[in-house]
Design brief:
Blueprint: H1 9-20, H2 28-35, H3 40-52, E1 56-59, E2 62-68, E3 77-84, E4 101-106, E5 117-121, E6 136-141, E7 150-155, E8 158-167, E9 170-175, E10 184-185, E11 191-200
Parallel strand pairs: 3-5
Antiparallel strand pairs: 1-2, 3-4, 5-6, 6-11, 7-8, 7-11, 8-9, 9-10
Helix pairs in contact: 2-3
Length: about 200
């Protein structure tokens, strides 16, 4: 990874440590010990500086969930492809078609590399109250998801947004947040396209 010369020596070392422990993220206290600095506030300062300089992205709700940006820092504004929730073929993907637009978003809204992001325009009321019709849903490309994640997926030829409930040795259950819709078992063509990471309201 090409580290820019303007980085403080502690920040260069911090990036190396974060990359080495990406599979099992360290706490701030553990980072302080490895960096051999005086306090956790010093670690916090340099983490914040790495974020400001575009070398690091952290989930504000989970400090141990971070992404080191490979190569040059990301720009403050990035563009994500926007797709509609349209029907696709048996082996189709929402990402196979042409995007209906490209939407500018602040890179700070993303806790992952922008190259892994896309957006879909929601339709219907099945995911109320979290997602309204017409909202722009930010997702991170993925082929698997944890139980309880809200996902963008293909099911029975349709691109939909649902909460996933995994079932041992069986197809998962797809759940609407709007309780007037019953859960249902995923179809044989079920495939995850991405995990929902944010919603931009258009109302």
């Amino acid at each position: 990874m090409a580290i820019r010369k303007q980085l403080h020596p502690i920040q260069k070392k911090l990036i190396d440590i974060l990359l080495e422990n990406v599979e099992d993220p360290l706490t701030v206290r553990e980072l302080r010990k490895l960096l051999d600095v005086s306090s956790t506030s010093v670690v916090a300062h340099h983490l914040k500086q790495l974020e400001k300089k575009g070398y690091l992205k952290r989930d504000p709700y989970n400090p141990r969930n971070y992404q080191v940006v490979q190569g040059a820092p990301e720009k403050q504004i990035t563009y994500l492809n926007l797709y509609g929730l349209a029907q696709c073929g048996p082996k189709g993907s929402v990402l196979d078609g042409n995007p209906i637009d490209r939407v500018a978003v602040s890179s700070k809204l993303l806790s992952f590399p922008s190259s892994e992001g896309f957006m879909v325009k929601a339709k219907g009321d099945s995911m109320l109250p979290k997602i309204n019709e017409g909202d722009l849903v930010i997702a991170r490309k993925a082929v698997d998801a944890d139980d309880g994640n809200v996902i963008v997926c293909v099911n029975d030829g349709q691109v939909i947004i649902k909460k996933i409930k995994k079932v041992f040795r069986a197809l998962p259950i797809l759940i609407s947040l709007n309780q007037k819709y019953d859960p249902f078992t995923a179809g044989k063509d079920f495939r995850i396209e991405g995990i929902v990471k944010g919603v931009i309201s258009t109302m």
